[in-house]
Amino acid sequence: MFSINTERLKIFPLDKANLQLSISDFSKVEGALGLTISGKKLSDRETKVYKIRLEAVESNQINYSWNTVWVIALKDINRFIGTSMIKNYPDEKGEVIIGYSIKKAYRGKGFMTEALNGLIKWMFLNTEVKAVVADTLKDNIPSQRVLQKIGMINYFEDEECLWWRLTMKRNRAFSAIIHDGKIAMVKHERSDNSFWTLPGGGVEEGEGLEDAAIREAEEEVNLKITIIRYLFSTEYTKGTEYCFLAIPTKGCELKLGCDPELEDHEQILKEAAWIDINEVREDKQVSKVLETLTDEEKKAFNIVL
């Protein structure tokens, strides 16, 4: 079963079957997840919430992890300590709403901060996510401190609640891998659209831009590359995208890779190909690549426009 692992925690999204189990007998879910039975029973309020989540999951089982309850387990005792919820797939604004709860015995130990950081890191792997939103009661100071610790900012309040938002800024690195007049591209497919793009993705913490471009090329199209030079950068909703000119160093055979941080059913990479650069010269990324190549580089790569 898919799960998110942090230093001390394991976090499981409940699919339709496990949500149904949790409503009837929570201990059966703990057993299905391989956890120590805690004796937890859902309150009437929790049961109502779980049924709402179940309806959302039933309406979109492919993306169930974006509409469900996530069980938080403490690794060293293999025991349930709390839950978080993702309440929607990114909406038209790219916003996702989350909720969370932790057992009293485990409060004040940083567990919920750790769980939310892990969950939010996973959510921002989806490029459709632009912000994560949460709300707290005005008198729930501990909950507000958790949100402050993970970097959320209070942006709105009503009579009862404070509303919080976290917008992720993450730089990305891409490579324009060119060989004999062709450029390597990968096709992304989501539920609502599909498009071809240059291999690339988010720069990891502590990673250099060129290193990120090299890693992403190997992950997405299985090419080992050498960076020739920096080409250009553009701003996007979450930060800056950097593009580098590159060549394959160990053969030119493309093979579709995957995102190692996503499960099989969540993969959006569907096809990889060498494409004649003239066929995609109007593409936003490729046109910018062509603008920044020198005449000598175009000649060396056999590019005739």
Automatic annotation (TrEMBL):
Gene3D superfamilies: 3.40.630.30, Nucleoside Triphosphate Pyrophosphohydrolase. Its EC number is 3.6.1.22. The keyword Hydrolase applies. GO terms for molecular function: acyltransferase activity, transferring groups other than amino-acyl groups; hydrolase activity. PROSITE patterns: GNAT, NUDIX, NUDIX_BOX. Residues 21-173 form the N-acetyltransferase domain. InterPro entries: Acyl_CoA_acyltransferase, GNAT_dom, N-acetyltransferase, Nudix_hydrolase, NUDIX_hydrolase-like_dom_sf, NUDIX_hydrolase_CS, NUDIX_hydrolase_dom. Keywords: Hydrolase. Residues 169-297 form the Nudix hydrolase domain. This is NADH pyrophosphatase.
